[in-house]
Structure formats: structure tokens, C-alpha cells
Amino acid sequence: MTKFINLKTSPNRVEFTGDFLIEDEGLYEFFKQYGAGEYDHWFERALRLGAYALEEERIAAFLGRAENEIDAGLERLKVIYKMVHLKEKSAGKGAVAEVELSDVLQRFIDDNGWGDEVTATGDKVGSIARRKVGDLVCSINNGAVSVVIESKMDASVAVGDPTALDERNKKSGNPEKSAYGQNITSLVNRDSQVAISVFDKASVSASIRDLEDITFQPELPGFIVKVDRARGDFANICLAYSIAREMALMGVEKIHGDHLNLVIKRLVRDLGVLAKTETDLGKIEKAAKDTLTSVDSIRGAITDTTSSLDSTSQILKKVLAGDVPSLDEMRLYFNEKADK
Fold first, then answer.
1. 195 plus 298 within the same structural domain
2. Which of 102, 166, 329, 331 is the most exposed place for a label (fewest CB within 10 A)?
């Protein structure tokens, strides 16, 4: 069979010359059903369809390879996801939380222009032989003082009792398997002035769940703080750190623990009320433009709460400065309006 195929451009076309001879029974039967005058038409159509079919075959092969590669990629992603998920459920969960806390605290510190430096120390032995308690150390005033932070995203850790070996009063128990034990060990192991143990609200023991979002331990001194990782809410650790660094700079021996504990509880409550009130106000303003009376009422609640926060700030400054508020001042401070 002698044939010549030339490709021409402008316009694009295929030019055939020479003799075409194909010995094929199926092709013969195909043309046999048409008259001689129709051969050119059906030849052109068969050629087009054949060429397109071959192209589709190559595309199908490509898509098949792509599908296999995508499937393999998805399998790799599934494996990675399982590894991350298992890591979150294992001891590695603490390491993930440490990175989050470190990033949040450093941004908070930088925003306030304090110059403190957050360093991950959870994989390093401290002052106690073979002990690594104390995941983050926040160096303050060029290392003159520091605040140590222990990330305990573990529902098995209880509050702890300083008068007992552990929460269950069992001699076989681990006295450090508690927020109290972690804080006191962190203070010694990292040579810090104030300790903070941080828990995730989604994974805490019953005794931790019953605490306020920020609980002060004046005898250490230390804090137990709960954050909401799922919502990305780390406000409580930022607040606790603010107070802890002031205590470290001022000298913990000058702080009156009982007064500070009262002020912290009030501060946490007021912040919670303010946050909830702002949320409620946003919903009302968006969904009900005609409820101006309700909006004014809520605005009044915000004003009252803001005023309470101002009073709290004044008392907090006195306590952190080492001053003991007078009995009259404390009575005035806690004597809230009955009609709020």
C-alpha cells in the first residue's frame, strides 16, 4: 500500500495522495452497504471518528494514570491524617499544645512590647536530675526572673492536694500526677518564680472542670488555667501570664495571696460577663433593629461591668504593689449595686 499524508496549515487540513489499500473484512462489509458515490463521505466520517477514538483512548489512559496517582496521594493523606490524629490522642498531643501556647504567648508579649522570651524546655532536663517538668519558660527582664508553664492536656490529671500524696490518697500514687504537683515541681526544676499549669477545657478531669477558668495557688505561687483550643480561645493564659510576670518582677513574697485570689476570681467573672454580653448585643443588633430598648439595657450592663473591671484593676494594682487594702476599701469593692 502506497500512501502519502501531508499536513497543511492556514487552514489546518490533512492531504492524502497515492493509493490506499486495506484488507479488512469488517471495513469491507461497512462500505459494501453504501453506494460508490457515498464512499468519500463515509471514509471521511470513519477517519474522523477513528482518530477521535484513538485520542480518547490516550486521554482515558492518562486519566487512568492520574486516577491511580490521585488515589495513591489520597491514601498518603489518609495515613498522615491518622498519624496526626493518633499523635493528638497520645503523648504527642502535649507537644502540639506547647507549640500553640508558645506562639500565642510570644505574640501576646510582643504586642505588649515587654521583651520577654518564650523558650520550649519540655525536652530538656532541668535542675532536678532526670526531670523535664516545665514545658515553656518565659524569661523576663533579660532572664532576671521567669515564669514556667506546664502544658497538661490530660484528663487524668487532677487538682491535687498538698497534704496528700495524690488526689486518691494512695501511697502508690504519683504525687506529681496533679496540677499542684506539676506546678511545684516546675518551679524547682526551672528555677522560676511563678508556675502556670494549662489545661484544655475539652479534656480535663472532673476536679479541674469544677475550678474557675483561672485558679490561683498562693502558697506556691502558681496558677491553674483552662483554655479552649477548639475555639482558639487562649485569653485565660494571657491574663494569667500578665499577672504572673508582674508578681515575678515585683517579688512574690510581697504579694498577699488571699487578696489576689479574690481579685482574680472577680476579674475572671467580669470578663466572662462582658464577653457574653457583647455576644448577646451583637446578635440583637443584627437580628432585631427595632429592639432599641433591649440594646440600651444591654449597653447599660456593659457599662456596669466595665466599671466593675475598672474597680478590679485598681484593687489589683494595690495588691501587686504589696499594699493591703483596708477593710472599708474591700467592703466598698465587693458591695455591688443590688439593681445591676
1. no
2. 331
